[in-house]
Amino acid sequence: MRILGIDYGDARIGLALSDASATLCGRAWTLTEWNLDRAVDAIADVVRTEGVERIVLGLPKNMDGTEGPRAQLYRDFAGQVEEVTGLKPILWDERRTTVDAHRILFAAGQNAKKRKKTEDAVAASLILEGYLNFKRMTQQ
After folding, report:
1. Interatomic CA distance for residues 35 and 55, integer angstroms
2. Which residues are 54's β-sheet partners?
3. Are 31 and 38 in contact (CB under 8 A)?
4. Which of 34, 77, 89, 96 could join 55 via S-S bond, C-beta 3.0 to 4.6 A?
5. Cα 50 from Cα 75, distance rounded (Å)
6. What are the φ/ψ torsions at residue 59 (nearest 5 degrees)?
7. Which residues pair with 12 in a beta bridge?
8. Contact in structure between 3 and 18 (CB atoms under 8 Å)
9. What ranges make up the beta strands (E) of the chain?
10. Alpha carbons 109 and 127: distance in angstroms, whole number
């Protein structure tokens, strides 16, 4: 089963795809699409061509676990993805994924300009890896 992790953002959307056994993050990339309908269509294409059976979408939460003002925007996006793909995204707590992505890329020596281009893909990988770890621990 392939699982797609999504880090949704205003300017870019990070995508991370698991391997066929849903054990590891196989690859990650950034989708740059300003038009929301085209972005959802591009995600649907990935779901179709890669045989994705589950989608995990990062959900922004405050540090105390409450949902911030952007959470409804992400829930609406999840609804659009579900409508087009037929798969109901699992909303996954994405606290600190962008911060951790910055830290990982900085440690790898990427300058700010390069980090901007790849941080969403790394954040999507972290969302996917968090879910895959949870799945392993709970045998889901």
Report:
1. 20
2. 3
3. no
4. 89
5. 24
6. -120, 120
7. none
8. yes
9. 2-7, 13-18, 25-31, 52-59, 90-93
10. 22
